[in-house]
Design brief:
Protein_kinase_ATP_BS; binds adenosine-5'-triphosphate; Phosphorylase Kinase, domain 1; Transferase(Phosphotransferase), domain 1; Kinase-like_dom_sf; about 350 residues; alpha+beta; elongated; Protein kinase domain-containing protein; ATP-binding; nucleotide-binding; six-stranded antiparallel sheet; three-stranded antiparallel sheet
Amino acid sequence: MDYELLKCPGCGAKFPPPAYLWGALTCEYCGATAVAATGGWPLAPPPRPEPPFAPHLPRATVAGVRYAVLGRLGQGDGSEVFLARRDARLSERVVLKVARAQEDAHLVAREFEVVGELLASKAQGAEHFSRLLPQPVAQGPVKDPEGTPRAAAVYRWRSGFQHTFSEVLDAYPTGVDPRAAVWMWKRVLELLAFVHGSGYVHGAVLPPHLLVHPRDHGVVLVGWSSALRFASRQPLPARSQRHRPFYPPDIWNGAPPTPATDLAMSARSLVAVLGGEPETGRVPLSVPPPLADLLKCQVNPDHREALDDSWKLRDRLDAAAKDAFGPPRYTPFTLPGWG
Ligand SMILES: Nc1ncnc2c1ncn2[C@@H]1O[C@H](COP(=O)(O)OP(=O)(O)OP(=O)(O)O)[C@@H](O)[C@H]1O
């Protein structure tokens, strides 16, 4: 085999090993540029084009980033929500929320903004609770299959949180085990305590906005487009007609929402998931009286015993659950698709 010593033809200094990417070498000592007699050292071949991920899947571009749409996660009052992945080798899964109509565009933008404000909150527990809020990635218009631009927002995907209270009720049409309802309500109240401590109300604590992690006994809230600073005393910017029985009645008359509104809506959602009537707070007889009584008084913010402080209500729930079931212990809860 023949070897060639690489020396600068100008000053004779040794060249460093030629970098594969360069077609020429510059001498570190005399600054001369040397090109091989054959016209240059070989350049690295251009990177091979990445094979596209699942080319049959539809693509959507938001804020200059392309996503492959994997499937639908759900449908909101004003939006379509999809699971997608960044269309690149180093990928990440995201939730893509697209406004169904132009009139709903402001709600998608509003949610993105409010969530950003809450993520900046310094209220007690911010470090823990901010991880339970949607994590914004990007927002901007996305073109639908007809080419019409629609307002869209992208959030990070949280694996495990994919069943809403509405789907839990589909899986348990006569209602969940009251023990499961206890941890579900506790998680909602803890998160609401942080939201209220930050000066906001969620304003739409409804079954389709409550996502359950069945194994970890976690619950998070989505659907933040109605959230607002309660000190503003503004009425809710949107209400879901389909879920009328979940709102305290004064909200339909334009009353400004307060933390008590969220607590009442959380109680009504829990009543529903227990197989009861959200409006009256009536639950099946299988629900032990301490829990049934607490729910019944809490669905109505005007009830003389209703609490308007989320932590206090959580403490009261703790006591009611101890009365009914003894000290807390882990009771497995399953949903379709979970072993
Ligand atoms: N982060 C998420 N992870 C999994 N599923 C989600 C997520 N966000 C939304 N979904 C699904 O999409 C459905 C609709 O989403 P969402 O409730 O946020 O829409 P919306 O009612 O139009 O929102 P909003 O009330 O803020 O305008 C939810 O009920 C749920 O099934």
